[in-house]
């Protein structure tokens, strides 16, 4: 602060207004600067000066003084804040008394100062808020209400109302209701606004319904309707009692006076102003009726639906102007006989009266809106009624003389058709047998209304004055095609085409393009009338060829072209397919080649379309191929197009002739193949991961059919990547491609001892080490390369590998076994067998590490070839004499690998041992598991024996807590493998029995979850799989109640697997059953917390953290589902997002906070967030919660002496929160949603 407060005070009292202005501005800046420490007691000296400045003669000084009250109040204690607000309110009262005019609409200066405090960034405590409300409300309600008081109450109740009790809210709301009725006008409206803010803080259903009774005691008026519109809010749906609903509906009916609408009116006697006035009230009443339909749950609305429909019928046909014009009056319009001369002004007024239609058009418009709201709120309940009683009137309204009504009828009918399709899908999904009955809404639409509707729509296009309706008319036709599909008459398209030509509708209209796209998705190309097919091809060709076509039209045309080429491939009526699409192909090629004239996204879209044509339509003009190859070469040389070009070439060159009709042409051009190969080799040095991946995949495809032009360059790059310092970033798919390429291209001269050493140390030890479980090691691609290395090497490959491999790794023994088998090193096998036998007989004991390796090696080599000295009996004896746990598990696996050739005779014996020796069960299970994994088939009898033995043993465990997870997991794996060989096995019955059994044996539940995981992830459509998954989902409430961490983790893992692999069964139950259960699991459970003493401190360990992380991963997957799927299954992301905000951002674990921010960003990126207006509510309550949560994360303190891990975790939270804030800000800007708090919050962070 550049000046002391004393100096600022002196300057604020200066006679020069500029100096006074700057003094206050300096004070404001100092108070807004968080680094400035201001003494509150010194600050109090400024308050009298600022209060006087509100009466300053200079308006700039006065305005600046208003701005300073909020930062001053922010720096004061609670009691001083109350005092300041009291002083300002006293000034407001003086201004009001001096003005003496309660009807003035000018807000006083002290009121502006007071409101600046309430609308600022001050968080008042509840006691302070209560004191302020008492001062303000008591002072205002003891006086006559005016605009100052009305505005102050709005702010006070909005920001401080949370401090009020329900009884206090009832008292204050009742006062506001009285003011609303007595004052009217802007003061009455602002009182109703204050009333709405009070309701936000109400928690009592009894008080809520009492207020409705208070409203209904007054004579019904537009004020009544305005108050009802406030209470008719979805947020209060649970508060309503049946009597309150009845009161509201009766008052709406009284004001509608629908019974008098059809009365015969003598227009010569009737005062037209009265009609206009009555219709104005009816308009507001219908608006309230619309809220009535949208805000209340169906069980409260159900009894009134019939009357609502009757009201809509009445006002949808109400047109007194038309009745007046149709009267058969006996009049003479000759000017000579007229005794009265009308001025031009009178003629204009008469014209306006006719145009306004006595504002009855507004009532017809409102009626259509009510139909639309009924569709949105209760489609499944009300569709039949709407079709029977309202659709004929909707279709009739298409021809309404008022354009707004006509347009709204088209929109409402479009929505009706869409909802019909949605309801039909839901019923079909739920196997409702009524969906094909003649009374279903879809069949009523098809059989009864489609012909008339299409005829009315066609008539709308008969005149040029309706050209502005073309977009919404086309949208209606599009929705009809999507809904009734094959029932739509394609010949109608020919009529539509003729009409569009008459009206000269532009071919590149985005609405026309949307219609074409829908047609190609719904119909086969051959089923579309020939004239319209030609029109489609010509339209998109011309649109693409035009230089000034809109960006969105070009994007849409590229998508249509791709779909068109797919359809043409399937056509049986086109004999010359290439000739048919030649012009279109040339237009696309021009867009691809002329890259400087178009944006990168357009070029990429057209490369995809270009490729699609070459994939689906055979190029019969051989002269075209030179130009095609040149086009691809150009695309490979440009950064903006290289990635998408490689994706297309993978599609064109991969697969076979069936997949790509021009496959031969591409693969027979050696010049292009060599050029492409060399370019791909160069791309392998890129830092672009997408380009690197595509290059690897395409090189593998090329190597399957072509010999590399320059293999040495490829080998140099591949070995540099494979043996380099950053090879740990390579994923399994990339490694597989690299191994495949090396296998194709490596030669004998390339294989040296140093190369083998690098493979051992850099690749096997670092990259192929996936842990102790051999089942998790995917070595097939490396083993292919290993075979090449072994066969080509001129030295002892086994020796070099064995000297450089980490022999403690399971993968090492498998690699050495492969080399032994490939090079037929039988002496190596004999040495290993003798070593194990000598150890077993006690002659030459082996170290644990050596024994572990030898057992692994003998198992792997025993799988590849028959052994002379080693068999199952020897290994079982070794198992008895070994104490090391890891060696025992390895012995079990090796037994399984060796015995798979004699599985029918040895597994039954192992099962006997399994029952007889409980202490060996885990190891024997590993043996049985390995034998089942390696066997392609086993007899049903053996599979049944395995199942019965292992399952019976599992059921015998009486301990209700999991004591041996590895054994139980292995039990599940073995049972799942046996289940695979029992195709008719009813697993659902086992699951049902286990869940219904008393006590819920947790061991059994865990094993069942392991089995189900195998079923869920299986690519085979096993019998009864859907049945057991359905039962599993239905039993989730029981499963989630099992308080065991391991059960919860595997349960969430299975749900995640269902989401990825079994969507057809899973998605229908997601919204109503699964999501609510998962959202409950986002809160940390006390049962899973364990206190660990650490010296003088106690550390709380949350053992349920991993399960909660899986919950967030599950929800992330949901928010990533496509927009269309979310809409189809009516999955509400808002409730998920709200849980991320309320639970995730306030979690004590940093990992969960980071997961929450990632999930929220992902949700905001889904288009459905915008459609459901996520974060965007009238009262901003969710956005305010988000701000509060983000602030809490940013201000979360570190420990006094944090570890590096804690510092890193804290920094990750800050980073993820800041990224989320940017995403939220971009989302709100895109939605054009501005609130009073978010911009301030966002600016403060900057």
TrEMBL record:
SUPFAM superfamilies: ARM repeat
Residue span of region Disordered: 323-351
Keywords, alphabetical: Repeat, Ubl conjugation pathway
Transmembrane segments: none
Residue ranges with Acidic residues bias: 327-351
PROSITE patterns according to UniProt: HEAT_REPEAT
Domain TATA-binding protein interacting (TIP20): 1069-1245
InterPro entries (UniProt xref): ARM-like, ARM-type_fold, CAND1/CAND2, HEAT_type_2, TATA-bd_TIP120
HEAT repeat positions: 46-84
GO BP term, pick one: SCF complex assembly
Record bears the keyword Calcium: no
PANTHER family per record: TIP120
Family: Belongs to the CAND family.
Protein name per UniProt: TATA-binding protein interacting (TIP20) domain-containing protein
Lineage, uppermost ranks: Eukaryota, Fungi, Dikarya, Ascomycota, Saccharomycotina
């Amino acid at each position: 602060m550049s000046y002391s407060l004393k100096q600022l005070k002196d300057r604020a009292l200066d006679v020069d207004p500029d100096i006074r202005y700057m003094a206050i501005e300096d004070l404001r800046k100092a108070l807004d600067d968080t680094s400035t420490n201001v003494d509150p007691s010194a600050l109090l000296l400024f308050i009298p000066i600022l209060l006087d400045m509100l009466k300053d003669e200079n308006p700039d000084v006065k305005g600046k003084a208003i701005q300073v009250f909020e930062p001053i109040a922010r720096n004061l204690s609670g009691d001083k804040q109350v005092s300041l607000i009291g002083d300002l309110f006293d000034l407001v009262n003086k201004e009001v008394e001096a003005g003496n005019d309660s009807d003035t609409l000018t807000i006083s200066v002290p009121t502006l100062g007071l409101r600046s405090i309430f609308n600022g960034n001050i968080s008042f405590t509840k006691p302070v808020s209560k004191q302020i409300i008492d001062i303000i409300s008591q002072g205002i309600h003891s006086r006559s209400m005016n605009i100052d008081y009305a505005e102050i109450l709005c702010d006070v109740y909005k920001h401080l109302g949370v401090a009020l009790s329900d009884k206090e809210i009832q008292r204050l709301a009742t006062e506001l209701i009285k003011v609303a009725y007595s004052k009217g006008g802007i003061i009455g409206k602002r009182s109703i606004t204050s009333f709405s803010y009070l309701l936000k803080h109400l928690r009592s259903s009894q008080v809520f319904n009492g207020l409705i009774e208070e409203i209904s005691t007054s004579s019904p008026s537009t004020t009544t309707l305005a108050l009802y519109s406030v209470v008719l809010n979805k947020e209060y749906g649970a508060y309503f009692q049946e009597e309150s609903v009845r009161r509201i509906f009766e008052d709406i009916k009284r004001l509608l006076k629908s019974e008098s609408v059809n009365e015969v009116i003598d227009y010569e006697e009737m005062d037209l102003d009265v009609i206009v006035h009555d219709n104005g009230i009816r308009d507001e009443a219908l608006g309230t009726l619309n809220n009535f339909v949208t805000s209340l749950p169906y069980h409260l609305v159900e009894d009134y639906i019939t009357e609502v429909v009757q009201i809509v019928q009445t006002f949808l046909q109400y047109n007194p102007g038309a009745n007046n014009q149709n009267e058969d009056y006996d009049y003479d319009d000759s000017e000579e006989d007229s005794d009265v001369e009308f001025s031009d002004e009178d003629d204009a007024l008469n014209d306006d009266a006719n145009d306004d239609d006595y504002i009855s058009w507004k009532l017809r418009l409102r009626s259509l809106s009510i139909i639309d709201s009924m569709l949105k709120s209760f489609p499944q309940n009300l569709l039949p009624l709407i079709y029977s009683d309202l659709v004929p009137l909707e279709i009739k309204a298409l021809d309404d003389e008022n354009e707004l009504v006509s347009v709204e009828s088209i929109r409402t009918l479009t929505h009706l058709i869409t909802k019909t399709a949605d309801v039909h899908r839901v019923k079909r999904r739920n196997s409702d047998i009524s969906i094909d009955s003649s009374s279903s809404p879809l069949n009523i639409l098809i059989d009864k209304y489609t012909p008339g509707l299409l005829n009315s729509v066609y008539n709308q296009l008969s005149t040029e004055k309706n050209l502005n309706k073309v977009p919404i008319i086309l949208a209606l036709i599009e929705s009809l095609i999507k809904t009734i599909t094959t029932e739509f008459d394609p010949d109608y398209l020919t009529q539509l085409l003729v009409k569009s030509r008459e009206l000269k509708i532009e071919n590149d209209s985005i609405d026309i393009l949307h219609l074409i796209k829908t047609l190609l998705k719904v119909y086969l190309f051959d089923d579309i009338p020939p004239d319209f097919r030609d029109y489609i091809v010509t339209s998109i060709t011309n649109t693409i060829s035009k230089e000034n076509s809109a960006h969105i039209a070009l994007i849409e045309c590229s998508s249509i072209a791709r779909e068109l080429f797919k359809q043409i491939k399937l056509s049986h009526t086109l004999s010359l397919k290439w000739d048919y699409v030649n012009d279109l192909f040339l237009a696309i090629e021009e867009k691809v080649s002329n890259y400087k004239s178009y944006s990168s996204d357009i070029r990429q879209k057209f490369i995809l379309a270009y490729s699609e044509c070459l994939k689906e339509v055979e190029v019969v003009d051989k002269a075209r191929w030179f130009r095609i190859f040149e086009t691809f070469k150009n695309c490979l040389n440009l950064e903006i197009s290289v990635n998408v070009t490689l994706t297309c070439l993978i599609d064109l060159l991969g697969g076979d002739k069936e997949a790509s009709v021009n496959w031969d042409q591409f693969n027979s051009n050696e010049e292009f193949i060599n050029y492409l190969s060399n370019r791909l080799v160069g791309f392998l040095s890129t830092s672009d991961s997408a380009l690197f991946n595509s290059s690897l995949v395409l090189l593998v495809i090329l190597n399957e059919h072509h010999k590399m032009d320059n293999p040495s360059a490829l080998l140099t790059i591949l070995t540099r990547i494979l043996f380099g310092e950053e090879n740990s970033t390579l994923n399994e798919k990339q490694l597989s491609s690299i191994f495949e390429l090396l296998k194709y291209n490596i030669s004998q001269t390339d294989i040296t001892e140093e190369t083998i050493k690098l493979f051992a140390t850099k690749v096997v030890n670092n990259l192929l080490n996936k842990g102790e479980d051999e089942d998790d090691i995917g070595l097939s691609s490396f083993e292919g390369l290993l075979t090449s290395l072994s066969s080509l090497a001129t030295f002892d490959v086994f020796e070099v590998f064995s000297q450089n491999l980490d022999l403690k790794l399971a993968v090492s023994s498998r690699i050495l076994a492969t080399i032994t088998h490939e090079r037929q090193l039988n002496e190596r096998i004999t040495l290993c067998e003798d070593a194990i036998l000598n150890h077993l007989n006690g002659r030459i004991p082996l170290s644990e590490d050596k024994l572990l390796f030898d057992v692994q090696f003998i198992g792997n080599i025993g799988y590849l070839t028959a052994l002379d000295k080693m068999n199952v009996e020897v290994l079982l004896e070794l198992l008895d004499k070994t104490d090391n746990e890891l060696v025992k598990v390895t012995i079990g696996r090796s037994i399984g690998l060796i015995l798979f050739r004699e599985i029918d005779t040895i597994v039954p014996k192992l099962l006997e041992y399994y029952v007889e020796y409980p202490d060996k069960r885990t190891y024997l299970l590993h043996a049985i598991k390995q034998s089942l994994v390696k066997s392609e088939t086993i007899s049903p009898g053996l599979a049944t024996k395995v199942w019965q033995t292992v399952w019976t043993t599992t059921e015998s465990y009486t301990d209700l807590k999991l004591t041996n997870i590895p054994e139980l997991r292995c039990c599940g794996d073995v049972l799942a493998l046996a289940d695979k060989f029992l195709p008719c096995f009813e697993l659902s019955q086992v699951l049902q029995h286990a869940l219904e059994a008393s006590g819920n044996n947790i061991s059994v539940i865990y094993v069942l979850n392991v089995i189900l995981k195998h079923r869920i992830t299986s690519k085979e459509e096993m019998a009864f799989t859907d049945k057991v998954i359905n039962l599993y989902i239905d039993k989730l409430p029981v499963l989630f109640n099992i308080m065991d961490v391991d059960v919860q983790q595997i349960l969430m893992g299975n749900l995640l697997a269902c989401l990825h692999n079994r969507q057809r069964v899973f998605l229908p139950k997601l919204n109503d059953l699964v999501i609510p259960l998962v959202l409950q699991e986002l809160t940390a459970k006390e049962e899973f917390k364990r206190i660990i003493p650490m010296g003088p401190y106690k550390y709380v360990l949350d053992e349920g953290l991993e399960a909660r992380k899986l919950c967030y991963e599950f929800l992330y997957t949901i928010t990533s589902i496509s927009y269309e799927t979310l809409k189809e299954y009516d999955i509400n992301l808002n409730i998920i997002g709200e849980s991320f905000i309320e639970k995730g951002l306030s979690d004590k674990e940093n990992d969960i906070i980071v997961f929450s921010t990632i999930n929220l960003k992902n949700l905001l990126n889904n288009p459905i967030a915008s459609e459901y207006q996520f974060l965007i509510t009238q009262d901003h309550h969710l956005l305010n919660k988000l701000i509060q949560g983000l602030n809490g994360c940013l201000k979360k303190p570190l420990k006094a002496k944090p570890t590096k891990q804690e510092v890193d975790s804290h920094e990750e939270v800050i980073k993820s929160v800041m990224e989320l804030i940017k995403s939220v800000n971009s989302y709100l800007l895109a939605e054009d949603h501005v609130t009073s708090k978010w911009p301030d919050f966002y600016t403060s962070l900057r």
